Amino acid sequence: AKKKTVFVQIQQILRNHGVQHLSKEHLKRIREAARKGGFKDLARYLKQDKGDADKARSDSSSTVEFQLLSVPEQLSRPMGSGVDERVPFLPDVWQSKLLDVVDSRNSALVVAPTASGKTFLSYYVMERCLCRSDRGIVIFVAPTKALVNQVKAEIDARFEKHYKYTGTQVVGVFTRDFRENELTCQILVCVPQCLQILLMSATNLSWTERIEAIVLDEVHSIGDVNGEVWEQIILLARCPLIMLSATLGDVDRFEKWLKEVEAAKGRKLYTVKHGERWNDLKTWVFDPSKPKDEGLVSLHPCSVLKPESA
Questions:
Q1: Residue 118 CB neighbour total at 10 angstroms
Q2: What residues pair up with 175 in beta bridges, in sequence order?
Q3: Which DSSP letter does residue 37 get?
Q4: Chain centroid to CA 143: how far?
Q5: 176 pLDDT more than 70
Q6: DSSP readout, 218-287?
Q7: Sequence-separated (6 or more) residues with CB below 8 Å from residue 283
Q8: How many CB atoms neighbour CB 43 within 10 A?
Q9: What is the pLDDT of residues 199-216, one digit of tens each?
Q10: Cβ contacts of residue 259 below 8 Å, gap of 6+?
Q11: Rounded CA gap, 281 and 274, in Å?
């Protein structure tokens, strides 16, 4: 564990600053840390002596093997990241494209793996709504009550706003078991059945006109038992839709239908498909026979493979 920590720290310093921008004193300290950590080839490379550097390149198996076997999640995966003043991080090209779609007041279908970085778009839409006025509304739709509670907690932690007049809250919740501030908040987190009720109620006409965007998380749920509810929301929505999914099946067929629906409302649909995730997912099992602090055991990636049926 200590060796892994040393490796990651050295790697982050070199990535963020580069060898050419570090002082001789700093390089000396990094070389010493690399040598003590067991990365002698890396220490020789950082010595910036041509002979030592060439030797390190030809004998770099120890550091390379350690990277691949122990910390593969730290491998660099450049995706064309660049500065974008709209977000506090370096977005990839596909993420910047999504920001452009949102700013153009059009709808987006985002198909990307879990942990790939698509949910940031939801919080960008929310922040923009909160900053623009006290009247705009963003609705986040999640398929389960558990996910609703999780998103609500995340919003509470991210956003805080002081209103000039009382009666308006930042976030509200509406599920079949619980409702709070659903018509007086700027960010409503709810399950699809409850949003369907609000959109179809004649008494909520002025409220629906204030909705700036609807985020449909796990939109592949449209193919489940209650899929007609998701379909009605898409058809009833007067505002841009941000639809997110990691496991959408027939993307082309769904995209074709969505384009027809959005075109009838005077909007365009942009589809962004991204197949990479920043961090790999790892499979773990709990072994009750081991000591309490060693109970979680990492499984080899091949454990998820299934043999072909005869």
A1: 24
A2: none
A3: T
A4: 17
A5: yes
A6: TGGGGGSTTHHHHHHHHHH--S-EEEEESS-S-HHHHHHHHHHHHHHTT--EEEEE----SS----EEE-
A7: 298, 299, 301, 303, 304
A8: 21
A9: 999 999 999 999 999 999
A10: 268, 269
A11: 16
- Angle at CA of residue 112, ends 253 and 80, nearest 5°: 120
| Whether the Cβ atoms of residue 139 and residue 214 lie closer than 8 Å to each other | yes
Largest CA distance in the chain: 79
Distance, in Å, from the CA atom of 22 to the CA atom of 111, rounded to the nearest integer, reads 40
Instruction: Please say whether the beta carbons of 121 and 138 come within 8 A.
Output: no
Tokens of 177: 């078991």
* Tokens 């043999």, located at residue: 307
Tokens linked to 71: 């910390």
Rounded Cα–Cα distance for residues 183 and 190 (Å): 12
Look-up of token digits 């990535």: 15
Amino acid at the residue 267: R
Structure tokens that stand for 70 in this block: 């122990």
pTM of the predicted protein model: 0.72
pLDDT at 308: 66
**Which residues, in sequence order, are bridge partners of residue 180?**
173
What pLDDT is attached to residue 23? 86
Work out the angle at residue 301's Cα, subtended by the Cα atoms of residues 308 and 41, and round it to the nearest 5 degrees: 140
CA nearest to 40, candidates 23, 67, 11, 61: 61
Structural contact between residues 242 and 119, judged by C-beta atoms closer than 8 angstroms: no
Name 21's Cβ contacts closer than 8 Å, sequence gap at least 6: none
Dihedral, CA atoms, 126, 131, 136, 141, nearest 10 degrees? 10
